[in-house]
Design brief:
This protein has 7 helices and no strands. It is an all-alpha fold.
Length: 185
């Protein structure tokens, strides 16, 4: 298993595009949500204590890209349905109107960025005894890349330092996000 700092660093790197799509507050929110969702694939560690099923082994179904895509889309749809009226009613986000499609893209993207970054970093440090089948059920075979040791302190610290410096630089940069139909004013 990769150290938590490695998952946090990779999720930060996957959250970088948010700075180009939205302004500061939404990009920070997206980055925080990505951090939260980056640990969700490891829910299998806790679920296997209560449920006995071969798919709930560590690096099982929750460590697959199809699972992340489906659950992320469901997460985004629920967020669009439940969060959008709440955000517009309470004015927690300073916007004239947040559409359901914007909320869906925002939350689904954060879920995908966090979850897929987790699967990718596990894949990059997978050994034969901790292999990952990232495309299950489309491709049932394990994939072992093993580029870096999962417990490599220099790699983990280098990644987190790079990611934090990049985000601080983007936060401090004076720029406007690209115009998209999912923009948040």
């Amino acid at each position: 298993m990769v150290e938590p700092i490695g998952h946090a660093a990779t999720a930060l790197l996957f959250a970088v595009p948010a700075w180009f799509l939205w302004g500061r507050r939404p990009a920070v929110t997206f980055t925080v949500l990505t951090q939260v969702t980056s640990v969700l694939p490891d829910v299998d560690i806790y679920l296997r204590e209560y449920f006995s099923h071969p798919l709930l082994q560590h690096h099982g179904i929750t460590h697959t890209i199809p699972f992340m895509l489906v659950v992320g889309a469901v997460f985004g749809a629920v967020a669009a349905r439940v969060l959008m009226p709440f955000l517009n009613a309470t004015r927690l986000i300073h916007s004239d109107s947040i559409t359901p499609s914007t909320t869906f893209v925002f939350t689904t993207g954060a879920f995908w960025a966090g979850g897929i970054s987790h699967v990718l970093v596990d894949l990059l440090s997978a050994k034969p005894d901790a292999a990952v089948a990232p495309l299950w059920p489309l491709y049932r075979g394990d994939v072992i890349v093993n580029i870096v040791a999962y417990d490599s302190t220099p790699v983990n610290l280098g990644l987190i330092l790079t990611a934090v410096v990049l985000h601080v630089g983007l936060y401090r940069a004076e720029r406007y996000p690209y115009e998209t139909r999912w923009g948040i004013d």
